[in-house]
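FORM 12-B: Structure-to-Sequence Request
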């Protein structure tokens, strides 16, 4: 079913609640079993099936119904834009600086000629 911008949020929530109920019944689970598995009250499951649930409760209920992977379809992960990738990459060296300094061991030896063998 496709939704449009003209559909009310209450209507869409009630349709999603009816789908939750259908999924629960297809899994042959009672509201109490789902509530116990989701760590919410049975009343919370009943309200969710009517389309009246907090997001955290909905996530818990979907987890109890083994349906959490469907959130990837509902809200897909947005990839980084090329500009954001460049910002994350930071400054990349383009040239070698060269090593103009003497090694530290030779500096110590030339500083103390008494230690030279």
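FORM 12-B RESPONSE
SEQUENCE OUT:
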């Amino acid at each position: 079913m496709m939704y449009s911008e003209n559909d009310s949020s209450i209507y869409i929530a009630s349709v999603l609640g009816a789908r939750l109920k259908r999924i629960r019944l297809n899994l042959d689970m009672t509201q109490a079993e789902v509530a116990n598995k989701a760590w919410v009250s049975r009343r919370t499951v009943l309200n969710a099936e009517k389309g009246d649930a907090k997001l955290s409760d909905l996530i818990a209920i979907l987890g109890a119904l083994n349906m959490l992977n469907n959130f990837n379809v509902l809200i897909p992960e947005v990839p980084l834009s090329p500009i954001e990738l460049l910002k994350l990459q930071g400054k990349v060296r383009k040239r070698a600086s060269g090593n103009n300094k003497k090694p530290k061991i030779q500096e110590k030896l030339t500083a103390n000629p008494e230690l030279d063998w």
